[in-house]
Amino acid sequence: MANNEESLKKIISHAKEYGFVFQSSEIYDGLSAVYDYGSFGVELKKNIANHWWKSMVHFHENIVGLDSAIFMHPTVWKASGHVDAFNDPMIDNKDSKKRYRADVLVEDHIVKIEEKIEKEVDKASKRFGDSFDRIMFLETNPRVVEYRKKVEEIKSRLYKGLENNKLADIKTLIEELEIVCPVSGSRNWTEVRQFNLMFSTQIGSLSEGTNTIYLRPETAQGIFVNFLNVQKSARMKIPFGIAQIGKAFRNEIIARQFVFRMREFEQMEMQFFVRPGTEMEWYNFWKQERMKWHLSLGLPAEKYRFHDHEKLAHYANAAADIEFEFPIGFKELEGIHSRTDFDLGAHQQYSGKKLQYFDPELNESYVPYVVETSIGLDRTFLAVLSYAYDEQKLADGSERVVLHLPPFLAPYKAAVLPLVAKDGLPDKAREIMDLLKVEFLCQYEEKDSIGRRYRRQDAIGTPYCITVDHQTLEDNTVTIRERDSMLQERVDIATLHDIIARKLRNNK
Ligand code: GAP
């Protein structure tokens, strides 16, 4: 599909029409950046989460699970640095009254310069053909050299401003680059200010006195504070990991990108505890492992790329994103962070409790280092859904919308369809449902013409449609129609289970 906002709009409208995702509280005009998953969406989302859980927890003997609470002691967020440092630098345009992340405005400007560089490269590679040397061109072409110098200078000023909290310098940078508001087109900007992204609420009744607590902005801290509980009770030896899937909350200011950026979302995180000094080895290991996991979903490798961070979060000594090519371009899908002993060290200091591991091989105790893998479930859902969405023109001139979902992730694995809702066909179809539903989630449908039912199943990504017709009553065979090729085959009912099982295995 075209790589633009238009294709995202089509996916949003398809997701609503076919029960994947609804705007939260829609009858009250919706709540911005909060979404509900419909009957098909919830199945797809659960299938993705189960695949992650199986790959991370069940297939690694040294990773165990956890389900910690959303509410945590408020000091957790002081220790983790979120109270003081989980901020975004925001700037408002006085004419449009729109608010933007100041760093994103500058980064978007950098992308524009980088696109100019790529245009020059494209032109030159067409001119020089096979003899074109990209690296030499980037290093010697005067215009490109100038662009690259400009990018480096902007990045350096931006990151210095962010690291040293020099917000006035970032405002000056925005002014010097003549960045305009995409809505009003004006350069009438406010000062840059920091906004904390955590939601807060009160715990306890007023008579007892209340305490401000936060809705967790990441699931990771639940893992850190339980590090010793889990290590001791599950008898884990370093290196080992703790994995968790759960809700996280952020008061995102820019939240206009469907389930890509939400205020309530789900994370799938794993903290891997290692011996200090070995963290870079494990960081590189998990970078590769996680990319392999993404490829196991069956989406093409060229849709993914690594992006190594230059500006590091307050807790990291190395960090990379796995980016996916969403309809809105290449964007972060997962983060892999080497978090050093920052979190455990801070919790040890704030709680006054030792959070150390006794390493029998070294005969010494230490605060472990941590390598984290952190992926958004909703973003993975969007990656899978947006890649699967396809509008096809068929040979007979008709059109269909089909979701080419990886079969093992599809909400329904098969639909069982009696050709007509009479002559004993529904009873036979129900027998097939009973045969398959123990292992596979199937849908029974008898309303509308068979053609319309096929289209509906295509639109929700069901890999197989099994049609029961009059011949079925005579010889116990059915037709099985494959979603992508639309080819139909007549098979014995006794083989259905194996055919579906094989298809699901092949696609993992
Ligand atoms: N514990 C580390 C951490 O939370 P992060 O890069 O801020 O790191 C990890 O978030 C992942 O969570 C992101 O790669 C993204 O997939 C997902 N995520 C973050 N903010 C999100 C939001 N507002 N809406 C949806 N997903 C989000």
Structure summarized in a few sentences:
The protein is α+β, with helices and mostly antiparallel strands. It folds into 3 domains: 38-72 and 197-393, BirA Bifunctional Protein, domain 2 (2-Layer Sandwich), CATH 3.30.930; 87-196, Herpes Virus-1; 396-506, Anticodon-binding domain (Rossmann fold), CATH 3.40.50. It has helices at residues 5-17, 39-58, 74-79, 82-85, 102-128, 134-140, 142-163, 167-176, 220-225, 227-233, 279-296, 342-351, 377-388, 425-436, 450-460, 470-475, 496-506; strands at 21-23, 35-37, 63-65, 87-92, 99-101, 193-196, 199-203, 211-215, 240-249, 264-274, 304-308, 318-326, 329-340, 357-359, 364-366, 369-376, 389-393, 399-403, 414-418, 442-444, 464-468, 477-482, 488-492.
Explain the overall architecture.
- There is one protein chain.
- This protein is of the alpha+beta class and 508 residues long.
- It folds into three domains: 38-72 and 197-393, BirA Bifunctional Protein, domain 2 (2-Layer Sandwich), CATH 3.30.930; 87-196, Herpes Virus-1, CATH 3.30.40.230; 396-506, Anticodon-binding domain (Rossmann fold, 3-Layer(aba) Sandwich).
- It is 40% helix and 25% strand.
- It has a seven-stranded mixed beta sheet with strand order 3-9-10-16-13-12-11. A five-stranded mixed beta sheet has the order 20-19-21-22-23, with helices on both faces.
- A hairpin with a 4-residue loop joins β14 and β15.
- α5 (102-128) runs antiparallel to α7 (142-163) and α5 (102-128) crosses α8.
- The protein is globular, with a radius of gyration of 27 Å.
- The model has no long low-confidence stretch (mean pLDDT 94).
- Glycyl-adenosine-5'-phosphate binds next to β10, β13, β16 and α13.
- The site of glycyl-adenosine-5'-phosphate (GAP) has 19 residues, from β10, β13, β16 and α13.
